[in-house]
Amino acid sequence: MKMLARLILGLAIFDAAATAPTLESINYDSETYDAALEDLDNLYGYENIPVGQAKIEIATVMPLENRELLTPPPQPEEAEEEEEESTPRLIDGSSPQEPEFTGVLGPHTNEDFPTCLLCTCISTTVYCDDHELDAIPPLPKNTAYFYSRFNRIKKINKNDFASLNDLRRIDLTSNVISEIDEDAFRKLPQLRELVLRDNKIRQLPELPTTLTFIDISNNRLGRKGIKQEAFKDMYDLHHLYLTDNNLDHIPLPLPENLRALHLQNNNILEMHEDTFCNVKNLTYIRKALEDIRLDGNPINLSKTPQAYMCLPRLPVGSLV
């Protein structure tokens, strides 16, 4: 019985094997797929590759047999709509603009840099010294002290300091300024100190009456460089420095509280008796004006002794 059972089982297996479909061999696109491991060194010749130029390539060999590639299903349109709706919209349906790069870094300059990134801003003071600037950069509205020395600024425009109501000091020493708009400084209500020395200025614009310190030394101011009675209403003006220009006269009248008047190295030829004193009041004493410099001018101070009777100190200058 056992022999009969084994014979029947063997016939069944043989019949199943005979009726099964024949499997076709898979042909891979590689000439070395059946290469033995010991033949790889001879096949690729690694010993002929120079050191430092050897490269290792890692890749996956795809069979040539047609197979269905797995591709991600298309995203539903609803997802895109949700992403669009996540962007905030204004009432009119438009997107809000990005905020300007202002704040502590200040407004943008012509080079598209914030002023306080190009210059140095400390509290309400802006330092733009020695930056090869050819124009006044836009300043933060709270600027109180502005320094832009040793640059290449040629002109001061009327809008350079517009709306800077807290500006108290401007220092533009050692530029090449030759032109200043008439309203460049006049509308600055808090301006106290103006320093424009070492430039090429030929004519001063109208200045605010709030000034206490003016230094326009080493420029090219001549006979018409200063307006008539330019300093008359500057009641708080203490220091007026106009050295190394081409002035041929002392700008009058001078404020009563003036303490220092420097006019060295000009072309002043004469002085009147009422330049500093009041000839109609012999008891008048001008106590504040203690520092007058006229040295370097072609004027003989000894010719007008009455002009100094009211002064606490004699001017410095030639007596010959």
Automatic annotation (TrEMBL):
<keyword id="KW-0433">Leucine-rich repeat</keyword>
<keyword id="KW-0964">Secreted</keyword>
<feature type="signal peptide">
    <location>
        <begin position="1"/>
        <end position="19"/>
    </location>
</feature>
<feature type="domain" description="LRRNT">
    <location>
        <begin position="115"/>
        <end position="145"/>
    </location>
</feature>
<keyword id="KW-0272">Extracellular matrix</keyword>
<dbReference type="Pfam" id="PF13855">
    <property type="entry name" value="LRR_8"/>
</dbReference>
<keyword id="KW-0677">Repeat</keyword>
<dbReference type="InterPro" id="IPR003591">
    <property type="entry name" value="Leu-rich_rpt_typical-subtyp"/>
</dbReference>
<dbReference type="Pfam" id="PF01462">
    <property type="entry name" value="LRRNT"/>
</dbReference>
<comment type="similarity">
    <text>Belongs to the small leucine-rich proteoglycan (SLRP) family. SLRP class III subfamily.</text>
</comment>
<keyword id="KW-0325">Glycoprotein</keyword>
<keyword id="KW-0732">Signal</keyword>
<dbReference type="InterPro" id="IPR032675">
    <property type="entry name" value="LRR_dom_sf"/>
</dbReference>
<keyword id="KW-1015">Disulfide bond</keyword>
<dbReference type="InterPro" id="IPR001611">
    <property type="entry name" value="Leu-rich_rpt"/>
</dbReference>
<protein>
    <submittedName>
        <fullName>Epiphycan isoform X2</fullName>
    </submittedName>
</protein>
<feature type="region of interest" description="Disordered">
    <location>
        <begin position="68"/>
        <end position="99"/>
    </location>
</feature>
<dbReference type="InterPro" id="IPR043547">
    <property type="entry name" value="Mimecan/Epiphycan/Opticin"/>
</dbReference>
<dbReference type="InterPro" id="IPR000372">
    <property type="entry name" value="LRRNT"/>
</dbReference>
<dbReference type="Pfam" id="PF00560">
    <property type="entry name" value="LRR_1"/>
</dbReference>
